[in-house]
Write a structure and sequence with these properties.
The chain is an alpha/beta fold. Helices cover 48% and strands 15% of the residues. The structure holds nicotinamide-adenine-dinucleotide.
C-alpha cells in the first residue's frame, strides 16, 4: 500500500526492532519524519539511519519508557525539534513467559512497567500535545494474548488486556478533539521478541526451537506466516484520514487466531 504522510511527524517507541521498526520505515516511505525511541541505543541509530536513507529526517532517541521523566523529556525533544507530533505508535514491550508460581517478582514488575506504564505514560504526553491542536493518531500494541489467555502468559496477557482497555477509554476521552486512539492485536511474528520467547520455551536446541515455533504457528487459521509489514500496514491505515471514524478499537491482525 502507498501512504501519503508528507509533513507528518511520527514517534515510535520500540522503534528499534520488529513491529516498531517496520512502522517507522512505512511512515518514512510515506514521507513522514520519525523519532525512533528504544531502550537499545544501537537499534535506535540503525533504524534512524534506515529512515534517513529513505530521504526523511530521523531522531534516534534512547529511552526507558518505564521512567516517566524520560518519556516527558522525549516529547519535549520532538516538539523542540519538529514543532509537534502527529502519529504515535507505542510498540515498546516485553514478553516474559512462565507459570506464575515460577515467575520472579522482578519479571512481573518489568512486564507491568514496560507494557502498561510505558504505554500509558507515552499516551499521556502524546494526548497533551494532540488534543489542544485537534489532531493526532495513536496506535498501541496489544496482542492476541489479551484475548487468547494461554497458560504461562498470565502477566503478559494481563498487561496486553490493560493496553486494550486503556486504548478504548482514551479514544473516548479524545474523540471530540479529532484524536484517534486504537490498538492492534498482532498474531505470531518472528521478531526478536519471539526469538526471546523461544529462548524461554525451548532453550538453545535449534530442533526444539523449530518444533515449538511450528506448534505455535500451527494454530493460525489462515496457515500463513505473518510478517511485521502486516502490522505496519494496519498502523499506517489507522493514521490516514480514511480511518478518521475508527477510534477506541482493538484490531486483530492475526490470520483469524482471535475474534
Ligand atoms: N512479535 C509478535 O508476535 C507480537 C505479537 C503480539 C504483540 N506483540 C507486541 O508488539 C510490540 C512489539 O513487539 P516486537 O515483536 O516488535 O518485539 P521486539 O523485541 O522486536 O521489539 C520491541 C522493542 O521494544 C524495546 N523495549 C523493550 N523495553 C523497553 C523499554 N523499557 N523502553 C524502551 N524500549 C523498550 C526493545 O529494545 C525492542 O527493540 C510489543 O509490545 C509486543 O508485546 C508482538
Amino acid at each position: 500500500m502507498e501512504f501519503n504522510f508528507v509533513g507528518k511527524k511520527a514517534l515510535v517507541t520500540g522503534g528499534g526492532s520488529g513491529l516498531g521498526r517496520e512502522c517507522a520505515l512505512l511512515f518514512a516511505k510515506g514521507g513522514a519524519d520519525v523519532l525512533i525511541a528504544d531502550l537499545k541505543p544501537e537499534r535506535c541509530e540503525a533504524v534512524a539511519n534506515e529512515v534517513r536513507a529513505l530521504g526523511r529526517n530521523a531522531i534516534a532517541y534512547a529511552i526507558d519508557v518505564t521512567d516517566y521523566n524520560q518519556v516527558e523529556a522525549m516529547y519535549k525533544k520532538i516538539v523542540e525539534e519538529w514543532g509537534t507530533v502527529d502519529f504515535v505508535v507505542n510498540s515498546a514491550g516485553v514478553c516474559l513467559t512462565e507459570d506464575l508460581t515460577a515467575q520472579s517478582v522482578n519479571d512481573i514488575d518489568l512486564s507491568i512497567d514496560v507494557n502498561i506504564k510505558g504505554t500509558i505514560y507515552s499516551c499521556r504526553e502524546a494526548l497533551a500535545i494532540m488534543r489542544p491542536k485537534k489532531y493526532g493518531k495513536i496506535v498501541n500494541m496489544s496482542s492476541i494474548a489479551a484475548k487468547a489467555c494461554l497458560g504461562g502468559f498470565s502477566v503478559y496477557s494481563a498487561t496486553k488486556a490493560a493496553v486494550l482497555a486503556a486504548t478504548a477509554s482514551l479514544g473516548r476521552e479524545a474523540a471530540l478533539d479529532n484524536v484517534t486512539v486504537n490498538c492492534i492485536c498482532p498474531g505470531i511474528i518472528k521478531t526478536s521478541m519471539w526469538e526471546e520467547i523461544l529462548d524461554q520455551l525451548a532453550g538453545d536446541d535449534q530442533a526444539e526451537r523449530d518444533k515449538v515455533w511450528a506448534e505455535w504457528t500451527a494454530g493460525t487459521p489462515n496457515g500463513k506466516p505473518q510478517d511485521p509489514i502486516d502490522i505496519a500496514n494496519m498502523v499506517a491505515f489507522l493514521c490516514t484520514e480514511e480511518a478518521r471514524y475508527i477510534t477506541s478499537q482493538n484490531i486483530g491482525v492475526d490470520g483469524g487466531y482471535t475474534f
